[in-house]
Amino acid sequence: MSIHHPSLPYGCPHCATSGIMFKLRLGEAPDNTPALWDVNVRAQPPATVIDRGPIDRIVSACAGGVRAARLHSARANALRPGYRHRAYDDLEQTTGVARTYILRVPPGTPIAEMCDRLAQLPNIESVSPNYLSGTLLDVERAPADDDAEAWLPRGAVRMAEALAIEPGDPAVLIGLIDSGIATNHPEFRDRFRAGYDTVRLQPRDIGPGMELLGDFRQEDADPTDQFVGHGMACAGIIGAAGNAMPAGLAGDTRIIPMRALGAVRIPGKAMPIGLGAISDLDMALKRCIDLGARVINMSFGTDDRMLHPSSPRPHRDVVDYALARGCILVAASGNNGIETRYWPAAYPEVIAVGASNTADQAASFTTRGAHVDLCAPGERILTTALQGYQYATGTSFAAPFVAASAALLVAYAARHAHVLDTTGVRAILTRSARPFAVPATGCGAGILDAAAALHTLQAQILRAQVPSGERDAA
Fold it and tell me: Are residues 405 and 390 in the same domain?
């Protein structure tokens, strides 16, 4: 899930060479710094002053001047051009999303030196290069008609039984932070809600020999993917109508598509991959949360070993913001087959998903670790492509099974006036998971069983409805 760029600065293979991210301490952020969204649409110019003190002096000395913006827009003013940096609420302030800045710098800027110097300042809470995060797609083109093999993964998670219990609720929204979607695919009529494209990359942000494709310079309201197909593969597992493949596990649930991974062609690779800056992914996550996503699927990741030891781990603040807003986060564990941590899957608050195969064993490529909660099918999953269909392999395609199951649990709980949060969803999914055919260390509690998860929730709701005295008598 990570792409190696050995020539990039800061001793790190995943730095976008044109920017850094930093967070000011609570109470230190000036009110007049514009939001990046406003800067991008030219409703506001970028800030040329931050603190009129040591931050400005360091940035000017290293980068020749300040060009900064707040990374996130205020929830209250997201629809007011020119005012998106006004009226951040308490959650936005305390989680840090209101205090996070993105700083663009010219080629040749000594990013390592600038980050090290800024980190010494008392009003800087954290600072980091704007790392790149990516995902690889292992696919085969598939015919328009599925075969018996296509139903094996769905049978493994007992999809038909789960949808018989809970058909899904259009009011429950799943955010899909990925490479974008094909809006005119016949499997998705009325399945996609309005989404967004936060991709903002430049050719100098990526490694030598790589080529950016399609739309990569400007965020906009069109999350269309023209080259990669990774997001479409995830979307099909969640919400396909079932015309020429098995239906999506989330049933009638709707999807908010957010394109945060741009298309990059790598020498020696037949298909383009998805690659995005941490800032673009974080923007997409926050916007998806503010749009009402109840569950978010994150089939991307950054290998912890590729981060500088002093850098904050990616996505921490938006993970906290999501939890505070009641959003359930699901992430792919990684595809390197060893024990390591990918972010955001490694956060304890995120449901981390590995991949299993048709023999009910952990897939050989799945990333392992104590943080992995459970596995789901991840080998040769028949799903949608940008045009037609494809077989997809990887933990990227195991995670959507779990995200879809989480959405069914949320929908069922809502129908019965039951409160269900991330902790409750994780507990139900892991408690109801089916054991591996062969024990697998570091792969979580077992394999997803969507029907068993709903039965577990049913029992939990029934117990909550029985008066305590009757339970004691029983």
Answer: yes
Examine the residue annotation and report whether 396 is marked as an active-site residue of this protein.
yes
Rounded to whole angstroms, the Cα distance separating 397 from 335 reads 11
**Residue with tokens 């939990």, as numbered in its chain:** 460
Cα(83)–Cα(301) distance, rounded to whole angstroms?
32
The end-to-end CA distance of the chain, in Å, is 51
Tens digits of pLDDT across the chain (474 residues): 433 332 233 334 445 567 899 999 999 999 999 999 999 999 999 999 999 999 999 999 999 999 999 999 999 999 999 999 999 999 999 999 999 999 999 988 999 899 999 999 999 999 999 999 988 666 666 665 557 888 999 999 999 999 999 999 999 999 999 999 999 999 999 999 999 999 999 888 888 888 999 988 878 899 999 999 999 999 999 999 999 999 999 999 999 999 999 999 988 888 899 999 999 999 999 999 999 999 999 999 999 998 888 889 999 999 999 999 999 999 999 999 999 999 999 999 999 999 999 999 999 999 999 999 999 999 999 999 999 999 999 999 999 999 999 999 999 999 999 989 999 999 999 999 999 999 999 999 999 999 999 999 999 999 988 776 665 554
Decide which of 94, 110, 131 is a domain's last residue.
131
pTM for the full predicted model:
0.94
Catalytic pick among 38, 169, 178, 449 = 178
Residues 105 and 238 in one domain: no
Catalytic residue among 5, 72, 230, 371: 230
d(CA 465, CA 284): 39
> 279, 396, 405, 432: which is the annotated catalytic residue?
396
318 and 171 share one domain: yes
Of residues 11, 10, 12, the one with CA closest to residue 2:
12
